[in-house]
Write a structure and sequence with these properties.
single chain; mainly alpha; two-stranded antiparallel ribbon; 10 helices; about 70% helix; about 0% strand
């Protein structure tokens, strides 16, 4: 179990770093976009041209919010800070609390798995519909995605591949996942985040049932014995200091 906790802590640090990076990126993009719009309103010509290159900014901010939300939700589950209606568990005894936490956590894990499956199917359904801006007409009359079209065909039509997106798309294609657009690709954060939350909920539920062998789960509001001893010793130490 300790190994699993260490792995989970490592994953949590990665999630926190990724969420922070996305959030900072959103702040920078939003600030640049707002600044360019203000300059455009003032009649600065180059700002208008630069703003045209920021057509992707709104979609990035929208999908970035999705990333921050799901990464934050996963981190909340990891640190047991997620929203929970646990008044019944808090008012119950140790063994009853363990049973309640075990049942609700396993149920939450199953729900997360179901949602992950639904979202994945929805994302893949969207990915199967290639928009015209990413669709290429081949010489034989067929059609292909911009990232899959031969380089010669792209050169004839004066087109080029979006390198970063196509690279990520080709990597995801190894797992039979090929997003049609960058926006569609950014939605891919949802299924793995939900599955990670499901694993954490399931382990929490199993751990709660295993705690029955040791008398159940303690009240989360109760401080550990060592902390209580330190807290009770602090006033006594302060009194001795004042007396001296």
């Amino acid at each position: 179990m300790e190994l699993l906790r260490r792995i989970d802590r490592g994953i949590s640090r990665g999630e926190a770093f990724l969420a922070t990076a996305v959030l900072l990126g959103m702040i920078v993009v939003a600030a640049l976009q707002a600044g360019l719009r203000n300059l455009t309103n003032l009649g600065v010509s180059w700002a208008n041209e630069a703003l045209a290159n920021f057509a992707w900014a709104d979609q990035f901010l929208q999908k970035g919010t999705l990333w921050v939300a799901f990464l934050g939700a996963s981190l909340a589950v990891s640190s047991n800070k997620h929203i929970a209606i646990d008044i019944l568990a808090r008012l119950s005894g140790r063994k009853t609390r363990a049973v309640i936490v075990g049942i609700t956590s396993i149920a939450a894990g199953i729900v997360c798995i179901a949602f992950a499956r639904v979202f994945f199917m929805s994302i893949m359904n969207i990915a199967s519909d290639i928009p015209l801006s990413y669709e290429i007409l081949l010489p034989d009359g067929g059609r292909a995605h911009l990232c899959d079209a031969p380089a010669a065909v792209l050169a004839e039509q004066g087109l080029s591949r979006p390198g970063l997106f196509c690279g990520i798309r080709n990597f995801l294609a190894i797992f039979d996942v090929a997003p049609a657009t960058p926006e569609n690709g950014m939605q891919m954060i949802i299924p793995p985040a939900l599955l990670l939350m499901a694993v954490r909920f399931l382990f929490k539920g199993v751990g709660a049932f295993l705690s029955l062998r040791n008398g159940g789960l303690p009240d989360p509001d109760d401080a550990p014995v060592g902390v209580q001893a330190e807290a009770s010793a602090a006033p006594a130490s302060a009194n001795r200091t004042e007396e001296s």
